[in-house]
Write a structure and sequence with these properties.
By secondary structure, the chain is of the alpha/beta class. The protein is 25% helix and 20% strand.
């Protein structure tokens, strides 16, 4: 799921009626589940209870853990039903499964890791490092061509049309901007939504999702 929905009510109450995709973690047990929450702090977390007072308590606990996209459902399940929302009955899961929704045009980070670690470059892809030349000089993937974002529009003739283009930078921000430029120019292009750091001949790739 691209979000985490938590029913903060007691197990027996939640099993009588709950929202689709909800996970049951009673408010009094919430603190014990801190280590079970997504490692990605931008994961959307939504909590609800029978009263806004209890929901806000749960909201504050999760928000204090650093999840900046935390929210609670005002009015709880009653408001949801009044709005015509679907209600389910039966056992709820307690395991939190968060699968972030990838940004349009993003290349799977795990696949990119395998690609750059491969001893030979696939003929299918053409990798472009859109960082500035001085950044590129500190370290880069051996198959990557350096075309800084600032020079990209004037360098379109250097980019093959018969290959899939993969763009990367240090944070994913410039590569996404470059993606939009090349997409408009008609290229089949992707960008790596990750933080990439080069140091002492080694690199680290950390997904932004």
């Amino acid at each position: 799921m691209p979000f985490v929905l938590i029913d903060l009510r007691e197990k027996k109450v939640a099993e009588k009626e709950h929202l689709p995709s909800a996970i049951n973690i009673p408010l009094k047990e919430l603190e014990k589940y801190k280590d079970k929450f997504p490692t990605h702090k931008k994961a959307p977390i939504i909590v609800y209870a029978d009263s806004d007072e209890l929901a806000i308590k749960g909201f504050n606990i999760v928000r204090n853990w650093g999840y900046e996209h935390t929210a609670y459902l005002p009015g709880g399940i009653s408001a949801w039903k009044q709005a015509g929302g679907q209600i389910l009955a039966g056992a709820l899961k307690k395991e939190i499964v968060y699968v972030p929704k990838p940004k349009p045009g993003s290349f799977p980070v795990e696949e990119f890791k395998k690609l750059v670690a491969s001893p030979e470059m696939s003929d299918k892809y053409f990798i472009i490092d859109v960082r500035e030349a001085d950044e590129y000089a500190t370290g880069a993937f051996k198959y990557a061509k350096n075309i800084p974002l600032s020079q990209l529009e004037g360098s379109l003739n250097e980019i093959p049309k018969d290959k899939e283009i993969i763009l990367y930078c240090a944070t994913g921000v410039r590569s996404e901007m470059a993606y939009n430029t090349l997409k408009k120019a008609g290229f089949k292009v992707y960008f790596v939504d990750a933080k990439i750091e080069f140091q002492n001949g080694k690199y680290e790739i950390i997904s932004n999702q």
